[in-house]
Amino acid sequence: MRTERYEIFENMLEGVQVINNNWQYIYVNNAVVEQGKTSKKKLLGKTMMEAYPGIEHTAMFKKLEKCMATKTRKKILNEFEFPDGSKGFFELRMQPVDEGVLILSLDITEQKRLEAELRKLNEYLEDNVNERTKELVVALEREKELNLIKSRFVSVASHEFKTPLGAIQISVNVLEEYNGSIPEYVQQRLELYGYIKSSVKNMFEILNDYLTLDRLEQNKINTETQTFDVAALIADEIEKIKILCKTGQKIIYTHEGNDKTVKTDKQLIKSILLNLLSNAIKYSEKNIEINTNLNKTHLKLKVMDKGIGIPKKDQKNLYQKFFRAENIGEIQGTGLGLNIVKRYVELLEGEINCISKLNNGTTFQVNIPKVKQETSTFKV
Fold first, then answer.
1. What is the Cα Rg of the chain in Å?
2. Per-residue pLDDT tens for 72-115?
3. How far is 30 from 339, CA to CA, in rounded Å?
4. 49: phi then psi, degrees, rounded to nearest 5
5. Is residue 207 a contact partner of residue 199, using CB atoms and an 8 Å limit?
6. Distance CA 352, CA 322 (A)
7. Parallel, antiparallel, or unpaired: how do β-strands 362-369 and 298-305 relate?
8. Is residue 210 over pLDDT 70?
């Protein structure tokens, strides 16, 4: 039985498990192991009843049986009790596959905890506080609700984007196995594969913006310093991103001075560059210039385009989450890129500035210390 096609789900944030028609676990990803506080060894090859005695008497199992029997999708909110007595809450989505049933699990335990806290706050308001205190607590409750909505949105976005994207990727892989069966359609299929893969890549990039924002909000991004040639790094990344340039559009890179070595976070420098550069490509038809300069204390990075520019009244909101200038038209984007860039720059103890004129281009300049202090965590 082939389960290799499910390996694309291995590092998803959501749990993915496949149960065959004999109720045996034939695939579980890392998230399932983490959610279940168990190991793959304890699940794979075992039946659900062996792994979790009594599970066959639960409402969840009845849904699973119906999904298996009728070949229809099912959804359930499942409360799960661990061997240590603790409880977790999971949103389960079941769908039939050739081997049996595929189950996607989203851990909403934290959401349930917050909902319980909100209920307690409401009870406290009703019984114990005067009118003014009620107003203050309601404001706190609203703030918690907004945080809950944000956290929920990120989780759902991850679930709703990654699942179909994974299915698309599996389909493409299967199609490629039979690519040579009808020679006269090889070129057309190859072009279609390229389009599908490009779309998948773009959607993953959008999703990554949301997930990066969530990690930043939860202070989960650390800096790791290393010594490297910044000019070589930028030249290498330009070579990779050139494929996104429009017809006739070129990226011109210059570095001033003989000193090219910095000690900072290489991945964050790369992310800052690629965000600024991809924006320049999107919002300009002409050549893009990149310049780096190292003095005794700082690295200066400039990304300059001659594109549509940013209206003056919009520039004050440039780094706000989800903000997009009024003149972007149909150009796609999440409105998160510059917010993420600014926070990355702050992680590196630097600053970012923008000079832009409508219809006359935009220049972003990033100044960061040439030598970054050891690992630190960004605080919002």
1. 25
2. 999 998 888 887 888 889 999 999 998 999 999 998 888 888 88
3. 31
4. -70, -30
5. no
6. 18
7. antiparallel
8. no
